[in-house]
């Protein structure tokens, strides 16, 4: 009876897990589809509340009519505008004014060479409603049309925000499908099975769907910021980290099926064997990502919880749903390479055995050569281009960027993008006079007044986001005490400054938290220091490679200000993840009596293949970002993918292994494994007793 009950329970547990997941997904389903509705991708949404630009946006929303959507309608003909072109422009602007509530009457500003006519247009109709803003920009573009050599483009901050939102909204589908396709291809190559690859891929897809619902709950319950970048990274982490955990579990499960007859018992043994390492590694990644909560930038701070949600949903799915499905499918899911009970896998000379052998013979030489190589690559970071401008953020040029380029060529003597100044109402005249007296200001005019504040629109003499305009904005902020200076260009300055502050704060917190976790896990100080130093070196080398290719090869005009911080957090968290797998096995071998040198080589031989497969999958998932139409995503995906590959095939294989061999038992200092085992005590000889005859 006991055996029958045990057998029934074994059959029931996988079905219960499956039913539980169906219930959880059913609960999450209504919320998963709503995540896109709370996604915000305006520059001001990324900024902290203390930033000048944020204050300007909030006060403008309280002015009569609310926040204004600013656009510039640009009419251009290469040979010079004709009288008919000007009449067409005036008629179209009149139609726009009749169809929408504009702030002031649009005035045409001709260029000196007569080729271009621009009409600044602003409306308070949309307020902070991004869908209404997009509809307004679309309607203006429908009205303002050219032809017969006359080009018409709608630019300005409002149009640029609409184009950016369109790109971000278009990412969800392609990003998911491309990531799934890449992971599927790699799993087919790794498993060499027509069926097995489907299981972890489907489980990762369900984990991604669950993460969308949880992320929406965080937004509604705690106000967590959601951007197109953070939701995209969350999907990448679910598939990348989830597939890594699946590779480790399936590899151990296959091994246990050769020793244990029943799939249920084999899976239980596999979970017992690799579960602690997977839990420890995922916990380290989550802790590293949560350090982003210390960032001031809303987009970075929101990415921490969303990334953590992705990792934890992947972990939950791969340690519960995946085992249940594999047990229900039985051994046949591995066809044609079915692991038979009692069989022994074919002995092969592993590539990692050869690589580990070379590291073991000359550990100091390998360590020095690797350090020099990483250091040389890191020097390429000095070649990174400067800060990325808004118009350079797209890999393909949208209409708003085309308008900005036309304006930059036709109006070199003046700014074409307004700077917004918000000043107390009682000091408006004084502030206006101070603005006009500021060096670099072309013109300034007073706008709306309300709620104790007055809006002043300023045009600089320098082009948008140039060094000259930046100097003008900084001069205005220095001279206008009690006023706020914002607008599109000011937002980019605030983004850069906030990112610089966040790097100084978040990087030490990440290093300290990861180091403390590793010390607790490995019962050592030296081994964690080696792992942390290795991942920092990988980050520097990956950034250096980016510096060598972003400008010369990819043609990028700048680097996203958040690249350094985000790539650091992800590479440190994910790199340490693989280090835990290697060091955990090394420690296990040492506990079983192996010498540290042989333990390091054994750990590399036994885990190298799985770690290499996991690294390839993770690098490939982040490399998917390089196919996206936004330069910040391309740069981030490239640096992380390159860093993961360096970590997997150079640092983990050669440098960590050679350092462990060279240090010997000292790698586990001050833990008990760092002390040489006491020599065995020889057995005592029995005392001789003399017996005398009487």
* Bulk shape: elongated
Distance between the termini: 70 Å
* Helical proportion, percent range: 55-70%
Category from helices, strands and their pairing: alpha+beta
Characterize the main sheet. Answer: 4 strands, antiparallel
What percent of residues are in strands? 5-15%
Low-confidence regions: 678-682, 684-694
Number of helices: 21
Structural features:
about 700 residues; alpha+beta
Commentary on this structure:
The longest helix has 35 residues, at 488-522. The protein is 63% helix and 7% strand. The strands form two sheets. The protein has a four-stranded antiparallel sheet. A four-stranded antiparallel sheet has the order 6-7-5-8, sandwiched between helices. It contains 21 helices and eight strands. A hairpin with a 2-residue loop joins strand 6 and strand 7. The protein has helices spanning 2-32, 43-46, 52-62, 83-99, 130-143, 156-169, 172-191, 198-222, 228-259, 263-290, 298-329, 351-361, 363-378, 399-410, 428-436, 467-479, 488-522, 526-549, 563-591, 596-623, 631-663; strands at residues 69-76, 109-110, 116-123, 151-155, 419-424, 441-450, 453-460, 484-486. It is an alpha+beta fold.
